[in-house]
Structure formats: structure tokens, C-alpha cells
Amino acid sequence: MKSRMKLSLLGITATAAIHLHSRSPAPPCTNLASTLSLSDPPYSNYFYSDCNVAAQVVVTSPLPDSNLSTIGPRLIVAWPAGNSGICTFFAPQNGVNGTLSVELVNSTIGQPLAPVYNASSTSNYPNVGVQGIIRFNSSAVLSLPILGSIRTIRDFVEGASILYPEIQNANKYTANSDGSASVERQWLDNVTTTSLCFHPRINGFTSGNSTVTVANGTLEFGAGEYLFTAQFNYPQLASLKPDAVLNNQSTHLTTTMPDQTTALSFLSYSEKLLAGAWRFLTYFGRDSMISALLLESVLSTGNGTAMEAVLGAVLERVNRSDGSVCHEETIGDYATWTNLQDNITSSAMACTYGMVDPDYYLPVLMQRYFLDNPVGQKRASAFFNTTAGSINAANQNLTWGQLALINAERIMRLTAPFAQNQTKSNLIHLKQGQPVGQWRDSEFGIGGGRIPFDVNTALAPAALRSIALLARGGIYKKKQRWSQLADQYAQIWEDNTLQFFEVTIPQSEAQTLVKSYKNASSFAGPDQSSSIDSVLTLYSISLDGYNNLSKVNVMHTDDCFRHYLLNTTDNAQLSKFLNATATNIRRTFPAGLMTDVGMLIANPAFGGDPVYASNWTTGAYHGTVVWSWQLAMMAKGLELQMGRCEVTANFSIPSAKKRVVATPDFCTDDSIFDNVKAAYNALWDSIELNSDQLSTEMWSWVYSDGKFQVTQLVDLPPPPGLSGQTESDIRQLWSLAFLAVSRNANFQ
Ligand SMILES: *[C@@H]1O[C@H](CO)[C@@H](O)[C@H](O)[C@H]1NC(C)=O
Ligand SMILES: *[C@@H]1O[C@H](CO)[C@@H](O)[C@H](O)[C@H]1NC(C)=O
Ligand SMILES: *[C@@H]1O[C@H](CO)[C@@H](O)[C@H](O)[C@H]1NC(C)=O
Ligand SMILES: *[C@@H]1O[C@H](CO)[C@@H](O)[C@H](O)[C@H]1NC(C)=O
Ligand SMILES: *[C@@H]1O[C@H](CO)[C@@H](O)[C@H](O)[C@H]1NC(C)=O
Ligand SMILES: *[C@@H]1O[C@H](CO)[C@@H](O)[C@H](O)[C@H]1NC(C)=O
Ligand SMILES: *[C@@H]1O[C@H](CO)[C@@H](O)[C@H](O)[C@H]1NC(C)=O
Ligand SMILES: *[C@@H]1O[C@H](CO)[C@@H](O)[C@H](O)[C@H]1NC(C)=O
Ligand SMILES: *[C@@H]1O[C@H](CO)[C@@H](O)[C@H](O)[C@H]1NC(C)=O
Ligand SMILES: *[C@@H]1O[C@H](CO)[C@@H](O)[C@H](O)[C@H]1NC(C)=O
Ligand SMILES: *[C@@H]1O[C@H](CO)[C@@H](O)[C@H](O)[C@H]1NC(C)=O
Ligand SMILES: *[C@@H]1O[C@H](CO)[C@@H](O)[C@H](O)[C@H]1NC(C)=O
């Protein structure tokens, strides 16, 4: 009864507030708004999306045990359109950290969010955004607002605390006659304005101190509740609703896995899919293609669908001069800012091409869709005929088909030297001057290695196999000769790369190594040395790393790329590799990769140099931590390899028709097959135990009470030399892979 009473009282207030802000009516949304609230203390996440706007709001409020030097009261509003946002930090007016808490509260305005839509007389685009009620438990001051691009916000929050005067100095504070006050900033494009307005709740239902003033060059608040309105006038993306993201056979997922399908829809637009919320609400080539591969069986196909959004976004952004796939796009206010650094007055988008791995996913995904998928087969000619340049003006006058060809030419060019002469120097290296270059793209990801394991042993040969098939399928005009040549290259890359990375460690030495690792890392659990019952095999995560390491001997999960993408045919090599993967997955960390919180992506225990223990930590983004999509790809990879033992050619898949399907040797070696099956099920058991985490980007752990326990990365100190910690995204595109990946009962 009490709460109902409060709601009706709030209703009066809300009406008044709406009145004061006179929202003009939005054009009708044919689809209902979709919302998602996710609690992840000290963060609360709220998603709102309808046909006019999509927004994510993240409220941070310190917990009693929060580290107050890193966790402070904060309100973030993030919009996919333009990768835009607002980040505001608040401080208690009494100056005592930890005494101010902030929260969004439900009201008749919204539960807690409502859309904002104001047609503008001065702008081509309406002001759109979200509003809701925010509550401060004590008097507060807006200590820092950053308005404009999420990239500008990331530059500040991700460690370095960088602020740009040309952006910060444009913030304007205004006190309005109706008692509200706002901060707003016009973008460097001179056209778009982002604003955040706070209006005190009137009539004092909840607090008599709810007043906001402009003082000391910022906003100051009394304790109490405020209607906040965050909006901007910028062209919005066309969202793909849950049933438009999924194919017809998979629409039931909107009822069986509503959280995941809502998140997938929030990240899906007709022009592109976005990598994650809130830090990566924009195009990322690698993320979207890996996601499309893993989600292929459930994604919608055809014109205007999720699958074509991914492929079209990638092709639109290919570097026409060398065929590189765009890693990350720079758009919105950050594009104008970046151009300005080059003395260019323009808001044209730009792309970063520093990564080496995205290039290789493109032919693989093209093959899966345009050759293996019946819808894709019919779409190929119209799709590749699409003229590029509508998003990325740099690619004007080319078609997506031409850009696909330029990408394949790059791969043929880069893989040719090794196909001729199998030397280490002919392996694919990171680009010059780039400290990182594949998915483990943080400081200690592959330990500074120049030659990554995944690209060389899996992605390059897989791309070559696909190029051969696409050439046979007539997708690359006038490149018939690739039908044979790319297959020849692929065979060489498949058979001759693994040996550069292979490391075998005698049993007793491996046991000694985990014991010394336990000491070097202060790991609190058992060293598990007794579980090492034979010679240990692992594959270096990279070659030519920091500290003059010719091999960076970190045990890892990147084996999954090879298992997932290739049906290799060198039996001796396959048996050894597959058995090593299985053994390393099954063993508990630090002897292997398994923990109570899932399979770790890296285990530095066998490196033998103390630098390993200090760099690959539980606090490192790509350290001894868990990434959801790696669980999915490994599970799928092991399943595909075991599937080779049962299945003969699937003649419903045209590209499989011509392949010789022979059962690999490991199928008849019980010691290997049973080991793989045991690893597969151990992995699935751990996936099921950690179902609450699976849709998040990544997570870490602490060892206490005799087990590994889930801990968020932000709660752990960063590795040496890094000033700031990384905040894991609450929802990440490729972490939604479990919509399509599940345990295969045939192997249980
Ligand atoms: C108080 O919070 C601010 C802002 O987050 C931070 O810079 C400062 O280090 C904190 N002070 C203490 C004593 O934790
Ligand atoms: C706010 O409303 C939502 C949706 O009705 C509900 O799920 C949530 O529990 C409410 N929160 C509070 C704190 O009452
Ligand atoms: C915005 O206006 C300023 C001042 O007139 C001008 O210097 C600048 O070039 C303009 N920027 C753009 C992107 O048009
Ligand atoms: C301005 O800030 C100073 C120091 O932070 C503080 O002492 C003063 O009370 C503030 N003035 C107002 C009007 O809030
Ligand atoms: C309102 O402000 C007064 C004076 O600062 C304070 O004593 C009181 O606790 C505040 N009330 C609330 C509800 O925060
Ligand atoms: C931009 O112009 C300034 C002033 O003319 C010059 O100092 C700077 O080197 C230029 N920057 C670039 C990237 O060209
Ligand atoms: C390709 O585009 C051109 C020009 O836009 C058009 O004339 C042609 O019919 C298209 N071909 C296909 C196969 O769609
Ligand atoms: C997709 O459909 C739209 C609208 O019918 C059409 O304009 C566009 O040309 C089609 N695109 C492709 C690549 O077929
Ligand atoms: C595309 O062609 C037009 C007309 O020839 C030309 O003006 C424009 O610069 C070209 N665009 C690019 C990116 O090459
Ligand atoms: C392969 O490269 C090695 C090392 O650079 C060189 O000694 C050898 O002659 C090359 N072999 C061929 C066939 O080019
Ligand atoms: C590998 O073989 C399996 C059948 O066992 C098939 O489903 C899969 O598509 C093949 N993968 C590749 C990359 O050829
Ligand atoms: C495969 O690994 C298992 C477990 O480590 C081991 O017992 C078995 O001997 C291995 N099989 C081969 C053929 O190496």
C-alpha cells in the first residue's frame, strides 16, 4: 500500500516535470520499447531502446568495501549513435569520499528510464535521449562532466585520466528560471549539442533540499531527487528488434533467453553490430565477425538483417589501398577531434587498421554465408554489387565485391612467402610500430610477441581455405586460379606452423615450474603439481616477445581457433595438439587452465621467468582471467573435432561436397578421444556453473575459502606499469554466443 501511495504522489510530480520540459510528441514507435535492468554492484545498468533512441545508463555508487580512490559516484549515459555519451562524476559536498551515494529510482516518468524526443526548430535532427529520477543521499557537486564521445570518456576512465581542453572548455553551465540547471556542450562539428539537465523534484515529497545551483563553475546539489534529462541532436541508427536479429527458427529465444536477446537487439542495427556496452558501443571488425561466426545458426539472414549488417559494415570499412579490415571506427565528435589533430576540418569517419587478425575472419564469414547458407547464396550478387561510400566516404566508387577482392588479395600476398619457404621470418608478424595486433590487445596480452599463435596457426590457413572455396564459387571475379593456389597455400600453413610454437616440458620440470609459479605469484591455492602425470605440451602464445623471449611460453586457449576453424589432416600433429588442449583444459590451474570460475584464457606458470607471474595476473585484462566467448569457441571447437569422428560429408552444404572426408586417427585412439570428451564435458560443467557471468565481457577471481571465486576486474589492482584498471562491459556482443552454442548430448 505504501509504495502505491508513493507512486501516485510521484505521478503528480512527474506530470509537473514533464510539463516543465514540454516534450514534443515523438513519432509513433511501431514496436514497443525494450528495456533491460542489470545490477552489478557497484554498477547499475539500464538499457532503453525504441524506434527513436537507444541508450544505456550506468550508475555507479560506492559500496562500503569499494576502493574509493577508483570507485566514485558516477552517471554515464551512452548512445550507440555516433558512439556518443555523457560521463559525470559526483563528489560529496562534505568532501568525505564514500558518503555520497547515487541511484536511479522508479517513478511514473519511467521504470526507471523514459525516452526524450524534442523536435528542434534549429537542427535537422530532433533532440533524443532518456530521462529519469536520480537520487543523491547527501549534498553533492558535479566534480567532472565529459560530454560528447564515448572515446573521449574512455581516454579519461581507462587509466590515463586524459582530458582535452578544447572539449572540456566548451562545457556550459546554465541555471534556468524554472529551478533546473544544466551542463551542455556543442560538439566540434558546430552542429550537435549534448546536454544534461537536472530539475529538482518539486513540492518536496522526498526531500526539502532538492535544489541545484550553478556555483564555482559547476553544478551543486542538495540531497534529494532530481529529474535528469540527457539528450542530443544527432542522426540515430536503425535498430534491429529482437525478432529481426534472429532467424525464423530462433525467435523462441526471445522467450527462453530474453535477457540475451534484448542485449543482442540493443547491439544490433541495420548498418552494423556493436561490440559491447558501454565501452564499445560501435563497430569493431574482429568482434562482429567472431560473433557472427559463433551466432550464425540463430542470426537473421537476407537484406537488412544481422548477418548482412556485419558483412556490409566490414566491407564498407576495408582499407582500399591495402585490403586491411578496419579494427575500430572513429565516428561522431571523436572523428572531428581526431581530424582536427591533423589540421583537417571534417567530421568524416576514420578507421584504425593496426590489428592483423581481422583481415582473416572476413573470407571465412563470407564463405559461411554466401556459399554455405541458402539465403546467402541467393543474396551474393546483389550484396557484392552494393556501392560503398555511404558510411565511409573513403571507399566511394568501389563496390563491396571489389573491397572483398582487395582483402583476399592482401591475404594471398601476405601468405605467399611462407608458402614458398617455411621460415620463422615468413610467418605473419604484427604491424610495425604496433605493440598489439590480435584479440589479446592489451599490454601483456601476448607478452609483446611479434608473431602471434592464433593468426599463424589458425586464421591464415582458415582464410586461405575459404578463399579457395569462394574462388571456386565465382565470388572473386577473374581469380579462378585461387581455387587451387589458395588451397595449396592453406595446406602448407596448416601443416607447417604449429611446430614453431610447440613446447614440451618433462613431467618433473613442469612440476617444479608450477611450484615456483605458486611462490612467485603468491597464489593462495594448491599448486596442483601432482596432477601433472606425464610430459607437458603447450604452444607458445607468441614468438619474439618482451625480455628477449624467443618463445612466450604462456599456456592459453587460442588453440580454440584451430579446432574451431580447421579440419587439419596431419594426423600426428592433430593428435598431439588436440590431446594437449584437452589435457591443459582438464587440469586445474596452475597446472592447467580450469578453475571454479571457468577456463582461464592464460596460464603463465610454465614460463620459468618471474616476469610471467608478474605480467599475467588476475588483474590483467588478458591475464589469468575468463573471457566468455573463448569458452564458447573452445566448446564448439572440441565438438567439431569430435564430430569428425562420426560424420561423413554433409552434402546439404555445397562447399563441403567436394571435400574428402576421412576420419582422423585420434578418433580411434581412446586415450585421446576420451581425453577430449572429458575436457569437453569439464568445460561445459564449468560453463553451466558460471551461467550468471556468461553475457558479460570477461571476469576474474580471487582464491578464498578453498576455491576460485568470481571477482570483477575493477576490484583487482592492474598489472605493473599500468595506471588504471579496465572496467569489463556488462554485455558484450561475442559473449552472447551461448544463444547459439550449447552442449552436444552426443558427447556427454
Ligand atoms: C576521493 O575521490 C576522488 C575522486 O574519485 C579521488 O581522486 C581521491 O583519490 C579520493 N580520495 C581518497 C582519500 O580516496
Ligand atoms: C523498478 O521497476 C522495474 C520494472 O517495473 C522493476 O523490475 C524494479 O524492481 C523496480 N525497482 C525498484 C527498486 O523498485
Ligand atoms: C566550427 O566553428 C569554428 C569557429 O567558427 C571553426 O573554426 C571550425 O572550423 C568549425 N568546425 C567545423 C567542423 O566546421
Ligand atoms: C566553492 O568551492 C570552495 C572550495 O572548493 C568552497 O569552499 C566554497 O564553499 C564553494 N562555493 C560555493 C558557492 O559553493
Ligand atoms: C536538508 O539540509 C539540512 C541542512 O543542510 C540537513 O540538516 C538535512 O539533513 C537535509 N535533509 C535531507 C533530507 O537531506
Ligand atoms: C597542424 O598545424 C600546426 C600549426 O600550423 C602545426 O604546428 C602542426 O604540426 C600541424 N599538425 C599536423 C598533424 O599537421
Ligand atoms: C549491379 O549494379 C549495377 C549498377 O548499380 C546494375 O546496373 C546491375 O544490374 C547490378 N547487378 C546486379 C547483379 O545486381
Ligand atoms: C536491400 O533492400 C533495400 C530496400 O528494399 C534496397 O534499397 C537495397 O538495394 C537492398 N540492398 C541489397 C544489397 O540488396
Ligand atoms: C569518386 O568518384 C568521383 C567522381 O569521379 C570523384 O569526385 C571522387 O573523388 C571519387 N571518390 C573517391 C573516394 O575516390
Ligand atoms: C628459405 O629461407 C632460408 C633462410 O632465409 C634460406 O637459407 C633458404 O635458401 C630459403 N629457401 C628457399 C627455397 O628459398
Ligand atoms: C570440418 O568437418 C566437419 C564435419 O566433420 C564439418 O562440419 C565442418 O564444416 C568442417 N570444417 C571445415 C572448416 O571444413
Ligand atoms: C593423451 O593425453 C592423456 C592424458 O594426458 C594421456 O594419458 C595419453 O597418453 C595421451 N595420448 C597420447 C596418444 O599421447
What do you see in this structure?
Residues 1-17 form the signal peptide. Keywords: Signal. This is Glycogen debranching enzyme. It comes from Penicillium frequentans. The chain has 748 residues and is of the alpha+beta class. The chain folds into 3 domains: 2-232, no CATH class; 242-492, no CATH class; 497-711, no CATH class. Helix content is 33%, strand content 20%. It has 22 helices and 31 strands. The strands form 9 sheets. The chain has an 8-stranded antiparallel sheet with strand order 1-2-3-4-5-9-14-13. Strands 6, 7, 8, 10, 11, 12 and 15 form a 7-stranded antiparallel sheet that branches. It has a 3-stranded antiparallel sheet with strand order 19-22-23. A hairpin with a 4-residue loop joins strand 2 and strand 3. Helix 12 (400-420) crosses helix 13 (453-472) and helix 20 (628-643) runs antiparallel to helix 22 (670-689). It is globular, with a radius of gyration of 27 Å.
Individual helix count: 22
Taking the sheet with the most strands, its summary is: 8 strands, antiparallel
Chemical compounds bound to the protein:
2-acetamido-2-deoxy-beta-D-glucopyranose
Proportion of residues in helical segments: 25-40%
Distance between the termini: 51 Å
Main β-sheet, spatial strand arrangement: 1-2-3-4-5-9-14-13
The rounded Rg comes to 27 Å
Low-pLDDT stretches = 1-23
- The chain-level mean pLDDT equals 92
Inertia-based shape: globular
Tell me the number of strands.
31
Q: In total, how many domains does the architecture comprise? A: 3
Helical/strand content category: alpha+beta
Percentage beta strand: 15-25%
